[in-house]
Write a structure and sequence with these properties.
It is a single chain. With about 425 residues, this protein is mainly α. About 70% of the residues lie in helices and about 5% in strands. Helix 4 packs antiparallel against helix 13 and helix 14 packs across helix 17. The longest helix is centred in the last third of the chain and has 26 residues.
């Protein structure tokens, strides 16, 4: 019988697939912020291993660059420089650790009261929907700012090829093929790209075979620390949604074992380690959760292999250049499916909780979470800014606490009778 850390060739292949899924988003943060991509790969691997140590290797999840810190990193680097910004991110990781300590002594019951399914379900839906435009733009060959990198007609052919092959292999594949639909989709998309002439191998030939990542040590300045720390609130709240999402996917309650106290501790330690080496803060990756849902590969050892591959790739510049040279539409087709899978997980959370969404209280909570999150609502006080998924999560928590609950209805009477009595 396979244990959590029984390394097998099949797990290694699936682990490489998980890294491929995370790779695009993983390196996007350092590219946008001017940080080193190889360092981000290294710290993602180290962070995932530290997370597994903190959670005793029980949660099949991958940690990598957090999108929530993109804007603060850019501003911090321009204002105080990269080392001081890294110091602020180290303290953000320390805040994660502090939250885990509070949970450890107060228990998870307080978290469950704050984050019932009527809150977490819509938040998970928002995670998938907010990411959806990213996948669609990639599938259309567009950059985040709308710049066309690949002609739309060619991009659609490539992205739909990778998407179709992924879906077909996941449905019809047998044996190992069924476990690696994403790799099959990526391979098909790459072959299609080469046939259509949509590829650029110049960066591969220009890159050296081996290179040590350009590590940077942090410095601590109060201005940068006070600026970065408030940003931690949003990804900290998102963390609960991510853990509930992977719990829903695997059918195991990770809120109880190993517990949010351990997963939050793992997130904090991983972020501290990444920031101490010059990498962006780490967070649990929704893309990989979607891949786990698609492949049904629940063994945490798979993420160990993904982490090891990330660390090794950080020193092999040629391989890193090759992965970064995968045409954008190829990954766009994959992302459409994965982000959709995340949204479905959120819907399933609500369905399993058997919540009446037309009940006034529930309707208000779900409606505001989704619209605030997807619509891009923001809230600012001075340098503190909360928006998107973070604001949606905070809104859900607050509404769940302050809105009065409906009077309990008699279970013995049918709904029609109960409604007539109320009238």
């Amino acid at each position: 019988m396979q244990t959590a850390y029984e390394f097998r060739l099949r797990d290694a292949v699936i682990g490489m697939q998980m890294l491929c899924v995370a790779f695009g988003a993983l390196v996007l943060v350092p590219i946008l912020t001017g940080m080193d991509s190889n360092v981000a790969l290294f710290t993602a691997g180290i962070g995932t291993l530290l997370f597994q140590v903190c959670t005793r290797g029980k949660v099949p999840i991958f940690l990598a660059s957090s999108f929530a810190f993109i804007a603060p990193i850019i501003y911090g680097v321009q204002t105080w420089g990269l080392p001081a910004t890294l110091g602020g991110m180290v303290m953000a990781g320390a805040l994660y650790v502090l939250i885990s300590v509070v949970i450890r002594f107060r228990g998870t019951e307080c978290i469950l009261r704050l984050l019932p399914p009527i809150v977490t379900g819509p938040v998970i839906v928002v995670i998938g929907l907010v990411l959806a435009p990213v996948g669609v733009n990639m599938a259309l060959g567009k950059a985040g700012d709308g710049t066309v990198l690949v002609p739309e007609r060619l991009a659609l052919i490539i992205s739909m090829t990778s998407l179709s092959v992924t879906v077909l292999v996941s449905l019809l594949g047998r044996g190992w093929l069924r476990l690696i639909p994403i790799l099959c989709g990526i391979a098909a998309g790459c072959i299609c790209s080469i046939c259509l002439g949509v590829h650029d191998f110049s960066r591969i030939s220009a890159a050296p075979w081996f290179a040590v990542p350009a590590f940077v040590m942090p410095e601590f300045r109060w201005e940068a620390v006070l600026f970065i720390i408030p940003v931690t609130l949003a990804p900290a709240i998102e963390h609960f949604g991510d853990i509930i999402a992977i719990s829903s996917v695997t059918g195991k309650d990770f809120l109880k074992d190993p517990g949010i106290k351990s997963t939050m501790l793992g997130d904090g330690v991983a972020t501290i380690a990444a920031s101490c080496l010059g990498g962006p803060p780490n967070t649990t990756y929704s893309e990989v959760t979607g891949a786990v849902a698609l492949t049904r590969a629940f063994n945490p050892a798979i993420m160990t292999w993904a982490a090891i591959c990330a660390i090794l790739l950080s020193f092999v510049a040629k391989i890193g250049a090759f992965l970064s040279a995968i045409p954008m539409p190829v990954m766009g087709g994959i992302m459409i499916l994965l982000f959709g899978a995340i949204m479905v997980v959120g819907l399933n959370t609500l369905v399993r909780a058997q919540e009446d969404l037309m009940e006034a209280r529930n309707l208000a909570i779900v409606a505001l979470i989704v619209i605030f999150g997807v619509g891009g609502m923001t809230f600012s006080i001075g340098s503190f800014r909360l928006g998107g998924i973070g604001l949606a999560a905070v809104t859900g928590v607050v509404l769940n606490l302050i809105l009065p609950r409906a009077r309990s209805r008699r279970k013995s009477a049918p709904p029609e009778i109960t409604r007539s009595e109320e009238r």
